[in-house]
Amino acid sequence: MFGVPGRRAVEERLPTLREELAADFCVVNGENAADGAGITPRIADRILTAGADVITLGNHVWRRPEIGPYLADSERVIRPANVSAGSPGRGLTVAPAADGTPVAVINLLGRLFIDPAVGPFEVVDELVDEARKRAQVILIDFHAEATSEKVALPRWLDGRVTAVIGTHTHVQTNDARVLPGGTAAISDAGMTGPHDSVIGVQADLAIARMRTGMPVRFKPAQGGVRIEGALVECGADGQGYVVRAGARRGIARTRTSATRTRSRAKTSQEAIASWSSARRQ
């Protein structure tokens, strides 16, 4: 979700979208919710009120200093598990789906070009083992730059988690897939926000920095608001069997994942005009 346009899309459309999509569980990546960088406690509360079950974050987690004490107490807003061990908050949580099924959500940063305190592959096995003690449906938000890492992690975890949903690049990828062991994956779920932009930023500002190398204060764009995300269908045993990536213009919602635990997991997106779909063979 990017800036005010993405936020408004979520607040206005998420309640009805969850009903339309029959989504039993919804995860929203709120990394860029506050003017394009970070999140505040007030914004987090509004997203949860709109219908998100869990909010994940990313490399801009500490851009708003007031979020630290909030994360220390929150069980529904989580930060990447592989930031410094002394940081407030948690990188794993478990929350109930609409039917009461426990769903575990893990938030991780990629290593390449982001350089977290600890590499994701160093901590993910322990996190997944902990999650599996508490839930069969397990979703990972992998906030990473490199597609190599985003392809490697779900392959490593195939059969142990329900889905690995990539975030961070703001550009939806065309590689939605279900691996042989039943783990659904996509390298990037995309961006909910203004697409008449350079990944959410006013295009002239982003281009000015690229052309001159001079510092430029970025501002969120306003036009072409679109909702993008991923839907995952899974069984009660936590194995995924369909994953879909979709987008539609209009008042939209954020980079999001939603799960339907009976047999479907669906993400926060507005209404979906086009889908690319992969089914487990």
List the helices and strands and how they pair.
Elements: H1 3-21, E1 25-29, H2 41-50, E2 54-56, H3 67-73, E3 92-96, E4 102-109, H4 120-132, E5 137-143, H5 147-157, E6 163-167, E7 177-178, E8 184-186, E9 193-194, H6 203-212, E10 225-234, E11 240-249, E12 256-260, E13 274-279
Parallel strand pairs: 1-2, 4-5, 5-6, 6-8, 10-12
Antiparallel strand pairs: 1-12, 3-4, 7-8, 9-10, 10-11, 11-13
Helix pairs in contact: 1-2
Description of the structure:
This protein is α/β, with parallel strands linked by helices. The protein has a single domain (3-279), classed as Purple Acid Phosphatase, chain A, domain 2 (4-Layer Sandwich), CATH 3.60.21. It has six helices and 13 strands. Strands 1, 2, 9, 10, 11, 12 and 13 form a seven-stranded mixed sheet that branches. It has a six-stranded mixed sheet with strand order 3-4-5-6-8-7, with helices on one face. Helix 1 runs parallel beside helix 2.
